[in-house]
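Q: Second attempt. The first request was missing the SMILES, so the protein and pyridoxal-5'-phosphate are both included now.
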Amino acid sequence: MMGDQADVMTAIPLVDLRAAHAQVAAEIQAGFDDVISSTAFVKGDVAAAFEADYAAFTGVAHCVGVANGTDALELALRAAEVPAGAEVIMPANTFVATAEAVVRAGARPAFADVDPDYLLLDPGALQAALSRQTGAVIPVHLFGQMAPMAAVADTAHTAHTARRGTVIIEDAAQAHGATQNGRPAGSFGLLAGVSFYPGKNLGAYGDAGAVLTESAEHARRVRLLGDHGSERRYEHVTIGFNSRLDAFQAVVLRAKLRGLAAGNLARRQAASRYAELLADLPEVILPRTAPGNEHVWHLYAIRVPRRDQVLRCLHDEGISAGIHYPVPVHLQPAFRHLGYGPGDFPVAEAAAGQLLSLPLYPQITPEQQARVADAVGRALG
Ligand SMILES: *Cc1c(COP(=O)(O)O)cnc(C)c1O
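A: Got both inputs this time. The predicted holo structure:
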């Protein structure tokens, strides 16, 4: 009874990283000890082992570990040789890093709207945005499900508006283990960028990322660029970067990777439970899975009216909900110079005012979810 009461009063985080750590604590400590005794702190055997493990897990041929997800996207664009000044089209509702990576790679972000059902890059909007200046398209696998890759690829490669040689780079930062018609995220584009930021489905204990690709040559280029332009010690064939996988992070990622499939399954079950719990609230738009997609539920983002008020009510009850993302990238001050304005992408802009991410992590309990759903119902009145 006391226990139950305590549970009812406890705060519910958006993501519970402490619960995830408990399952791998011993293995991680042992791995850290090994790294310390080897003194191979950057890359090393454990990073190579993780790269092989993650490639095997996803089913994509090559995985190159890098320092973070933003670097992964930048290095992917550079390895693909997207020309300087070319436009790179992405959906307007994404994390800002997608656009940052494009600028850092010397190209220019361009945006397209998303579809109203799934909030993924809309192939019709993409078609309209393509031009002779387009160098690449970055579909974002938002919240854990993949953008419509066949339609995106078809549009990018065949539209009369498109430039020949337009490449596709997937932003797979939220899609660890996601598939579409049985094919994994990272296998459709020329390359894909992955983030292992702590809160992602597979999260490090600091920053880490990876590039996935089916192309051995592009994997080689990413590795070269991320390691000071060098494959042989003190021979630098190009001006590169320092973007390598840290050995401690590789230890964490290897240990947590073993639980990723089970974690994704638990997220899927939690997502269906939310769908049942919220089904009777007519004002709530539930997130949907597009046909053919295996969703990994990085986020469970509903859409509600009076969103900010609902968010405040949840916070008052100790429930940490979030907003992904409150301001679409084309309206961020940092990208004002691109010349976009309010009204350019109505679906993304409307979603930004309604989206509300509910707590979701593999260890969330049915009781916690019921409390969240009740609180949402009360907040909506
Ligand atoms: C997390 C994220 C990134 C960037 O990853 P970092 O590791 O934080 O640099 C890029 N794109 C999307 C969609 C993300 O969610």
